Amino acid sequence: LFCRNKHKPFLLFLSFLHSHTPLLTTKKFLGTSRHGLYGDNVEEMDWMVGQVLDALDKEGLQNTTLVYFASDHGGWLERQEGERQLGGWNGIYRGGKAMGGWEGGIRVPGIFRWPGMLPAGSVINEPTSLMDIFPTVVHLAGGALPQDRVIDGWDLMPLLQGTVEHSEHELLFHYCGIHLHAVRWHQKDSGAIWKAHYVTPVFQPFGAGACYDRGFCPCFGEGVTYHDPPLLFDLSQDPSEAKPLSADTEPL
């Protein structure tokens, strides 16, 4: 594809089967990581991404191609076999896949590569969305966004190139299926990021961090808790969503 289209614009959308169960891994990578079969699977995906980048470099396209590596959701915490964790791990972030509000379910990797256009090694701690891919690609291709509807995404290039300091997303709505579970407010003037949880899944067993009794957290019904008033977190100070704010201690 790169060779055929090296002199004109092209879009390659590549979805890996990797880091998703079943963890299909070739013999070459079995046992190569320190983190079991899941780690082996990630090692193989890393190699495959490298093959794509090497092909771009070989065709001399590295300085004219934006590469965006991302995921569609956080790790599936309930996916286990005995002592083996097969669904990934979400670090300091609470919750995981199929949880429409907790950070562990919706915060995913976002890694960009464009030598000569994007500063190398920079880290941007601003809320963005996979919805931003569409307007970004349209802009880079010289197209125009539809004017007959609201487009929820924003062109990421100003943020990635450092010409603006903050993301254009003031509000992001986080759904579980069709059910609104949480809303994030990005207070641009201060950089603070607030998140209100209206619905949260009931973790089982008690004290656990996921729905291990079901294998998947529900979006509504008896398997969730409805919060009125909502749980409120300051993500800029509490990214793990461990300490909900209270009107008693936080009157503002």
UniProtKB/TrEMBL annotation:
Top-level taxonomic group: Eukaryota
InterPro entries in UniProt: Alkaline_phosphatase_core_sf (IPR017850), Sulfatase (IPR050738), Sulfatase_N (IPR000917)
Family matches, as Gene3D superfamilies: 3.30.1120.10, Alkaline Phosphatase, subunit A
Any one GO cellular component localisation term in the record: endoplasmic reticulum
Necessary cofactors: Ca(2+)
UniProt domain Sulfatase N-terminal: residue ranges: 5-142
SUPFAM superfamilies the record matches: Alkaline phosphatase-like (SSF53649)
Keywords, alphabetical: Calcium, Hydrolase, Metal-binding
GO MF, one annotated term: metal ion binding
PANTHER family: ARYLSULFATASE D (PTHR42693:SF5), ARYLSULFATASE FAMILY MEMBER (PTHR42693)
Family stated for the protein in its record: Belongs to the sulfatase family.
Entry protein name: ARSD Arylsulfatase
Gene this protein is translated from: Arsd_1
